[in-house]
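Lab manual, section 2.4: Encoding a predicted structure.

Procedure: take the sequence of the chain (233 residues), apply the prediction step described in section 2.3, and record the output as structure tokens. A sample record is shown.
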Amino acid sequence: MASIITDSITDQVHRFLEREIAAGNIHPGARIVEEEIARQLGISKTPLRLALHQLKQEKIVKIESRRGIYLAIPTLKEFLELIEMREVLEGLAARRAALQADRRFVSQMNACFAGFTKTNVNQIGGKGKYAAADHRFHRLLVQASGSEELVANVSVINIRLHMNRLRRSFSRSRDLRPLHQEHVDIIAAITAGDAESAETLVRRHIRNAPWEQIIEGGGIVAESPSRQSDKVA
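Recorded output:
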């Protein structure tokens, strides 16, 4: 019985850390101090360490003897692979969403952009709100697939990419009018049950993001040959 209770606490701690990271409350590269988190949650270090090792297996955190525990920053190779995976998986989610009989997610996706139009989407102050709306939209899109596996896998990818922070950063300097139209078109395709168009539009939507700009401003670098040789060894 004790192990069941410990596992339950570990799962809760794991979800808590994922939420904190996804919300941008822990910065990429920042050290994670076990004592502080254990004290904040009122728990012992045992379930916390188990949760952190789960996050290590998911490549969300790194644990090194000299640096300690810190939030991982993807290498350029990892970043590009994660973007490719996100495109494929969200495209599949859109296809599945268009084929679902349950349409409750469609109204929720529309609600994400209530009040936004092509004429006001670039207004100062509105861009931060639009980044939040974009985050909700993509979360609902994957949930609308009806696949728990897709939800779980896309969630890990988005956490590793630090998508919430990226959305806020590129929304500030980007013309959001084309982005808004892409969202409108995706929702229309899902509403019409056009699975092929929904998948195509979502994949194009993800490819259209200013990834080069994000890579340049996000501290994402190619892995050094010495680090690569360490891994081989």
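Check your result against the sample. Residues 76-217 form a domain with the Four Helix Bundle (Hemerythrin (Met), subunit A) fold (CATH 1.20.120.530).
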